[in-house]
Design brief:
seven-stranded mixed sheet, alpha/beta, 2 domains, four-stranded antiparallel sheet, 419 residues, Aspartate Aminotransferase, domain 2, Aspartate Aminotransferase, domain 1
């Protein structure tokens, strides 16, 4: 199999991850629930992994890292945990995953003002539109106040911004520094969905001005599925959406206010976290080299698509090339795949085919695994007009090879020529 769906989950992981999970299953008790070796071993592993993540992402300390089962749970904790109500504002973008959009829609039904920041023509984040939304809520730079229907004797409405650092559809990323500066200027708390970027692009919560960082452990970090984290800047409060046993302060009627237990009800997935711990050790010092390798593969694929489109133009007239879907090129790209600061992801469609057909042909032809469909990101598909046909996504890992990309290009060339 040629696995090119790394934006969904890592498939090839270092052997130490499997070994760590296996060892933990035989050795770990319930963390923070006992004073015997098995419990303490699990607790030590969780603490060391918190410390690794805190150092990697520039958090205020390991106590700011609470484990979740994935980025979706972390985002639900972060968004619902702000206690937004009628008159408050939640700003998201058209590029968001349903992990952000569905919490936003639920809050909208409760009276929260949900604002959608737009995209530029190429599908990248429009920071000017985001600025206009903030100005409309808070007022212009001269200090004129606009309270969006809230009377003067009431508190200013709260503003929460929740944005994906990297699009899971196009692989394009937002400028965190520019976004966070606007958040500080207009008084918005910043929640960042780093499911796609954690472990691939450098992230520093302090330098990037992030208040809450939500990560997945099973993608760029190469940990097992069922791992993730919500990392909270010290001083930012998150009201837990799940409550229960914490192993400490048993007689409180509420969750302990101390992080990380505040957001960790019940037994943690210590066995899989042990695998994440091993993956973080394995990857230390290697990520820059991996990124260069992944981006070389992406460039190779883009050059292959350019060659196919050039061949198509030379072989057929414009009338012959322009099919019922309006494509003038054999393979259409989405977003800005040539952006220097982007992910090793390329999204495309082939003239005359639905995305699912292409994915099926690639798999049946050479066992090439790609993602096709809506990618749990409906609004960006509406933006591109691909709600019905979907989009094909190839996402690369340092485990992939140039020979594999050559096979992918050759298969696409054959499909184009069949038409």
């Amino acid at each position: 199999m040629i696995y090119l769906d790394n934006a969904a989950t890592s498939y090839y992981r270092p052997a130490c991850v499997r070994e760590a999970v296996s060892k933990a299953i035989d050795a770990f008790g319930n963390p923070s629930r006992g004073a015997y070796d098995a419990s303490l071993s699990a607790d030590r592993c969780l603490f060391e992994t918190r410390l690794q993540l805190a150092q990697m992402f520039g958090a205020d300390g390991p106590d700011c890292v609470s484990f979740t089962m994935n980025a979706t749970q972390a985002l639900n904790e972060a968004i619902f945990g702000q206690g937004l109500g009628p008159g408050d504002h939640l700003i998201v973008s058209l590029a968001e995953h349903n992990s952000v959009l569905r919490p936003a829609y639920r809050l909208k039904a409760r009276g929260v003002n949900v604002r959608l920041a737009g995209l530029k023509r190429n599908g990248t984040f429009d920071i000017d539109d985001y600025r206009r939304i903030l100005m409309k809520i808070r007022g212009d730079a001269s200090g004129r106040t606009c309270t969006a229907g809230v009377s003067a004797d009431k508190a200013e409405p709260r503003i929460i911004t929740a944005l994906a650092h990297g699009s899971n559809v196009t692989g394009n990323v937002i400028d965190l520094g520019a976004v966070s500066r606007l958040c500080r200027e207009y008084g918005s708390l910043l929640i960042v969905d780093a499911a796609q970027t954690a472990g691939i692009l450098p992230i520093d919560m302090e330098k990037d001005g992030i208040d809450i960082l939500c990560i997945s452990g099973h993608k760029g970090l190469m940990g097992p599925q069922g791992t993730g984290a919500i990392i909270v800047r010290r001083g930012v409060f998150v009201d837990p959406i799940m409550v229960g046993g914490s192993g400490i302060k048993t007689f409180l009627e509420t969750m302990p206010e101390d992080m990380p237990a505040h957001l960790e009800a019940g037994t943690q997935n210590a066995h899989s976290i042990a695998g994440l711990h091993a993956a973080l050790i394995y990857s230390d010092g290697k990520r820059e080299e991996w990124r260069r390798s992944e981006m070389r593969l992406k460039q190779q694929f883009l050059e292959g698509i350019e060659a196919i489109n050039t061949e198509d133009k030379l072989c057929y007239s414009e009338d012959r090339r322009r099919g019922p879907d309006g494509f003038s090129e054999a393979i259409r790209l989405y977003g800005d795949p040539y952006a220097e600061e982007s992910l090793p992801t390329v999204s495309f469609n082939v003239r005359g085919f639905d995305a699912g057909d292409i994915a099926d042909q690639l798999w049946r032809g050479r066992e090439i695994a790609v993602r096709a469909g809506g990618h749990c990101a409906p609004l960006i598909h509406r933006f591109f007009g691909t709600e019905n046909r979907g989009i094909v996504r190839a996402s690369f890992s340092h485990y992939n090879t140039e020979d594999q990309i050559t096979i992918l290009i050759d298969e696409l060339r054959c499909i184009v020529r069949e038409v």
